[in-house]
Design goal:
- It is built from 16 helices and no strands.
- By secondary structure, it is mainly α.
- Helix 3 runs antiparallel to helix 4 (87-123), helix 8 packs parallel to helix 15 and helix 9 packs across helix 11 (310-343).
- The radius of gyration is 21 Å and the shape is globular.
- The chain starts with a helix and ends in a 14-residue tail after the last helix.
- The model is unreliable at 437-447 (pLDDT under 50).
Length: 447
C-alpha cells in the first residue's frame, strides 16, 4: 500500500476519525493536567510536592481497591449489546453499574476514614492519609455520573461530546485546585479544589445523562438507575465484572506502586524527582490513551460484526502504537533537559537523569494500548490476570530490593522491567492464541 493509499485509508476510516477527535480532547485534558501539576509543583517545591505525590498515589491505591472495575466490565458488555441493538440488555448493564456504584460509595467512605491511620503506620505521617481521604471522596463523586455519561456518548458514537465532557471535568477540578493552592492553602487547598470540582461535575453529568437518555431508548432514566432491583439482576453481570475488575486493578497497580514503594526508602524530595520524571514520560505517552479508550467498545463490536478481522486489526493497532510510542519517547528524551528547566524550574533539574533512564519504559508502552480491550473482547481476562500476577509476584520483592540498594535508580529499573515484560508476554500470547475465525460469543459469559 502506497503512502497516498495509507493517507486515504486513515482519512476515511471511522475508527481513525474517532481516535483523532478523542485525541484532541485528550490532548487538552493532558495539557490541563500537566500544566496544573507543574504549577502546583512550583508552588509546593520539591519537599512538599513529594507529600502531595504520595497522597495521590495512596488515594489511587485505595480507590482501586474499592472501585470494583465495574465501568470496564459494563463498557465491554454494552459494546456488544448496543451493536446487536439489544436495548434491554444495554439498559440492564447500566442499571447493574448503578447498583454497584452505591456499593463503591459505601466502600469509599470506609477507605477515606482508614487512610490517615494507614499513612501514619506506613509513612509516619497521618496528614498524607487525610489528603488522600479527600481525594478518595472527590474521585467517587466525580466519577459517579461522569462515567455513565461518557460511556453513553461513546456507545452512541458521539465522541466529540465525550471528549468535551472529559475535558470539562479536568478544567473544572484542576482550575479550582490551582486557585486554592495559589491563594496560600497549599496541599489542603489543592485537594479541596478537586472535591469542589467533583461536586460541580456531578450536577453537570446528571444533566448530560438525562439529555442522552431522552434521545435513545437503550438508556434508563435516573429514576430507573436508583430504583431497587432483585439480586438476580446483579448476579447476571457480577462474575464477568469481578474478573475484569481484578485484571484492571492488577494492571493499575503497575502505575500506583512505584511511588508508594520508592517513598519507603528515599526522602520526599527524591520522591518528587522520580514522580516528575515518570509523569513527564507518561505525559507524552498519554497522548495515545484515546486509542485504548475507543478499543474498549470497538473490539467487542468488531467481534460481533466481523470476528475474522479481529486479529489483523489488533496487530495493526499494536504496531502503529508501538511506533508512535518510540517516536514520542525519543522526542521527549531529546528535549527533556530544556523542558524540565522551563516547566518546573532549576530546583527540579535533578530529575532529568531519571527521565533518560525511563527511555526503554516509554518506548515499549505503545504495544500495550490494545491489550486490555482485547483480553475483555475475547473473554480471556483470566490469562491477563495470571501474566500480571506472576510479573508483580516476582517484581514487587525484586523492586523493593532494587530500591533499597539503588534508591530511585532501582525504581527506574523496576518500572521498566514490569511494563516491558508484562506487555510483551501478553502481546505474544494473544498473537499465538487469537484465531481469525473466532466464533461469536457473548462478552457477558465467563470462560
Amino acid at each position: 500500500m502506497s503512502v497516498k493509499e495509507h493517507i486515504t485509508y486513515f482519512s476515511q476510516n471511522r475508527f481513525v476519525k474517532n481516535v483523532a477527535t478523542l485525541q484532541i480532547g485528550n490532548f487538552g485534558s493532558t495539557l490541563v493536567q500537566g500544566v496544573a501539576g507543574i504549577i502546583i509543583a512550583r508552588l509546593l517545591q520539591p519537599q512538599l510536592f513529594g507529600i502531595y505525590a504520595i497522597a495521590f498515589s495512596l488515594a489511587g491505591l485505595l480507590v482501586l481497591i474499592v472501585s470494583l472495575g465495574v465501568q470496564d466490565a459494563v463498557t465491554t458488555i454494552v459494546g456488544g449489546t448496543h451493536a446487536r441493538q439489544d436495548h434491554q440488555a444495554t439498559r440492564e448493564a447500566f442499571m447493574f453499574m448503578a447498583k454497584m456504584t452505591f456499593v463503591i460509595g459505601f466502600l469509599s467512605v470506609i477507605a477515606a476514614l482508614a487512610a490517615p491511620s494507614l499513612a501514619s503506620k506506613i509513612y509516619h505521617n497521618s496528614l498524607i492519609g487525610w489528603y488522600a481521604g479527600i481525594l478518595i471522596i472527590a474521585s467517587f463523586i466525580s466519577n459517579t455520573f461522569l462515567n455513565f455519561s461518557t460511556l453513553a456518548y461513546q456507545i452512541i458514537g458521539k465522541i466529540k461530546q465525550m471528549a468535551v465532557l472529559t475535558f470539562t471535568d479536568q478544567i473544572v477540578r484542576n482550575i479550582l485546585a490551582l486557585s486554592l493552592a495559589a491563594l496560600g492553602f497549599g496541599i489542603t487547598g489543592a485537594m479541596t479544589g478537586h472535591l469542589v470540582g467533583a461536586l460541580i461535575m456531578l450536577v453537570v453529568s446528571i444533566v448530560v445523562w438525562e439529555h442522552i437518555r431522552r434521545s435513545d431508548i437503550a438508556f434508563p432514566s435516573f429514576r430507573e438507575l436508583i430504583a431497587p432491583t432483585g439480586p438476580g439482576h446483579v448476579r447476571k453481570h457480577l462474575s464477568f465484572s469481578a474478573w475484569i475488575a481484578l485484571d484492571k486493578n492488577i494492571a493499575t497497580l503497575y502505575n500506583l506502586l512505584p511511588i508508594l514503594m520508592v517513598a519507603l526508602y528515599v526522602s520526599t524530595t527524591e520522591v518528587t524527582y522520580f514522580k516528575i520524571s515518570l509523569a513527564y514520560v507518561n505525559l507524552v505517552i498519554g497522548l495515545m490513551g484515546p486509542i485504548s479508550t475507543l478499543l474498549n467498545v470497538e473490539l467487542p463490536r468488531m467481534r460481533e460484526e466481523d470476528p475474522r478481522a479481529l486479529r489483523k486489526n489488533f496487530i495493526r493497532v499494536s504496531l502503529y502504537s508501538l511506533l508512535g510510542s518510540v517516536i514520542l519517547t525519543a522526542g521527549a528524551l531529546v528535549v527533556s533537559p530544556i523542558a524540565l528547566r522551563i516547566l518546573y524550574g532549576a530546583n527540579f533539574i535533578s530529575g532529568v537523569k531519571y527521565i533518560l533512564g525511563l527511555g526503554i519504559y516509554g518506548a515499549f508502552l505503545g504495544i500495550g494500548v490494545g491489550l486490555g480491550p482485547m483480553w475483555r473482547a475475547i473473554n480471556k481476562v483470566k490469562i491477563s490476570i495470571l501474566i500480571n500476577t506472576i510479573t508483580l509476584g516476582i517484581g514487587i520483592p525484586g523492586g523493593l530490593y532494587l530500591i533499597s540498594h539503588f534508591g530511585v535508580w532501582g525504581a527506574v529499573i523496576m518500572v521498566t522491567c514490569w511494563f516491558t515484560i508484562s506487555h510483551l508476554a501478553s502481546f505474544f500470547y494473544l498473537l499465538a492464541h487469537l484465531d481469525p475465525s473466532l466464533e461469536k460469543q457473548s462478552p457477558s459469559a465467563t470462560t
